[in-house]
Amino acid sequence: MLSIRRKIVERFALNAFVTGDYERAEKYFLRLKSDEPDRLGADHNMGLVKLGLRQYAEAEAYFLRDRELFGGSYLRSRTLGDLYYIWGDREKASKWYSAALKESEDEVDKTLLRERVKICSRESSFAAVQESHRSFEAAVLQQKSGELERAREMLELAVQQDPTNFQAWNNLGSVFMEDPARQTDAVSCFTRARAYSSIPAIVRNLEEAEKRAGETKRG
């Protein structure tokens, strides 16, 4: 009975997380953690939720506890790198991204990690990272309200501020894909996103944009 209940709650938690409803996801993940506080993944998932809620100190505590309980790994180093990269701690971001780079076996991930370590090596380039994140978040709100032209402007700013912001590249491609005349631009954006991430949604978006661009070219 507990196993069935857990699977249901896990499904609710993951669905909420994927859709960006972090407060709802937090509620379900907390329920799971209260049942089994030291279960593998409990602290990691809570850390991701807190990261989504921009509660960085709490996210840090969960991620470090997860590492303390279960040891080092590529995923744990990469997640800490992402946390400090968004939070604005250049030295710690560089430290954990460098550790993840040594542990990574994926060439796409290595490309992203190398670029971000390079960004972290210079105060001038790292200073724009948080601005890029804020521009991206503003663009997401514009997209949700249907203000696609304003969203496009904010997303173009986000990728100028941080060229490794693959979420911004992906969303910019999505905006271009809404315009039948700009499918080639959509392909270019999704290609940039794909260079830094193998997330299935990005792969699917690139395939769809290439299909539409091909259909448009054939006329």
Describe the secondary structure blueprint for this structure.
Blueprint (H helix, E strand, L loop, with lengths): L1 H17 L3 H14 L6 H11 L3 H15 L3 H14 L2 H14 L3 H14 L2 H4 L2 H16 L3 H14 L4 H12 L5 H14 L3 H19 L1
Helix pairs in contact: 1-2, 2-3, 3-4, 4-5, 5-6, 6-7, 9-10, 10-11, 11-12, 12-13
Measured on Cα atoms, how large is the radius of gyration?
19 Å
CATH superfamily membership of the largest domain: Tetratricopeptide repeat domain
Give the low-pLDDT segments.
none
Give the SSE string. Answer: HHHHHHHHHHHHH
Measured between the Cα atoms of the first and last residue, the distance is 57 Å
Mean pLDDT: 93
Q: How would you sum up the global shape?
A: globular
Number of helices: 13
Total beta strand runs: 0
What report would you give on this structure?
By secondary structure, this protein is mostly helical. α1 (2-18) runs antiparallel to α2 (22-35), α5 packs antiparallel against α6 and α10 (148-161) packs antiparallel against α11. It is globular, with a radius of gyration of 19 Å. The protein folds into three domains: 1-71, Serine Threonine Protein Phosphatase 5, Tetratricopeptide repeat (Alpha Horseshoe), CATH 1.25.40.10; 73-126, no CATH class; 129-218, Alpha Horseshoe (Serine Threonine Protein Phosphatase 5, Tetratricopeptide repeat), CATH 1.25.40. The protein has helices at residues 2-18, 22-35, 42-52, 56-70, 74-87, 90-103, 107-120, 123-126, 129-144, 148-161, 166-177, 183-196, 200-218. The protein has 13 helices and no strands. The mean pLDDT is 93. Helix content is 81%, strand content 0%.
